[in-house]
Amino acid sequence: MNWIKIDEAAKMTGITKRAIRYYEEIGLIQPPERSDGQVRLYTEEDIEQLKRVVDAKEVLGFSLQELQHFLSIKGRVLEHKVQYETSRDKTFKQSELEEIAAGLKEQRDMLEEKMEKMKSFQNELKDLIQKVESLLKV
Amino acid sequence: MNWIKIDEAAKMTGITKRAIRYYEEIGLIQPPERSDGQVRLYTEEDIEQLKRVVDAKEVLGFSLQELQHFLSIKGRVLEHKVQYETSRDKTFKQSELEEIAAGLKEQRDMLEEKMEKMKSFQNELKDLIQKVESLLKV
DNA sequence: AGTTACGTTGACGTTAACGTAATCATAAAT
DNA sequence: ATTTATGATTACGTTAACGTCAACGTAACT
């Protein structure tokens, strides 16, 4: 397999090595494999996961805590899904699922609102650019 | 005029009094009027400005510094525009304007990228919601 | 007029998200 | 076989964005 060390991982994701270790420390990403000498070894998949975490943080403005919450919810939902599909085993609690669904919908609506506001800001920006360019074209 | 004190201002904007004073302290908003007794008195317009600052911070994830930068650029552009329209006075420096335009365009592109990523996250969310609901509908 | 509520200015405290430096072990290059 | 580079751990430092508390003045209610 093509193992990736932390320095390259940092370059691939655009964050620092410290940040990567920190994310691992607070449980935001899975601890990767280790070599004999204790060296962290990442797979391509690990890197993809990291990138998605970074995106979510930087783009969505989620705090790392919020991200953790979301990721754990996602994990649990997918688990349940698999359980259901394979064994028809309804081990989940109905009320719990309903709670999860409510939380997700709230997130979805908040995102929607954010995007609306971004659009209006985007328009303001474009307007400003127009003004500046009209000043330049004289 | 209908003056608004800081406590009501806080309630209207959804942030704390401390945050409002802090924003004033770092120059993010204009210091409002004061009564004789040194009491801060805000106008409706002040509140609107505050709301927009809060939005930009929370929605766009701008740091207060970035916001300051943007607001100052905006102010200067509008100044120039007015100058130009009224006096045909080309007191601005061409190079400076070009720099500003470049900066704004960069912001615009970054926003575009952010919105794209938000959309894909939005889709992921909707997908998860679907999955949860399908689990519920059994 | 007295009490209660609200406002003001310091000033120190707090938390998240890392930065940085020291010290030691291992891996790579020469 | 040494340098040299890279990685790990530990621990203290830093910055932004406020929170909180103290001490005080002023408004508002009764």
Automatic annotation (TrEMBL), chains A, B:
Keyword Coiled coil: yes
Residue intervals of the HTH merR-type domain: 1-73
Keyword flag DNA-binding: yes
SMART domains hit by this protein: HTH_MERR
Organism annotation: Fictibacillus terranigra
Keyword annotations from UniProtKB, A to Z: Coiled coil, DNA-binding
Organism domain of life: Bacteria
Stated name of the protein: MerR family transcriptional regulator
Coiled coil residues, start to end: 94-138
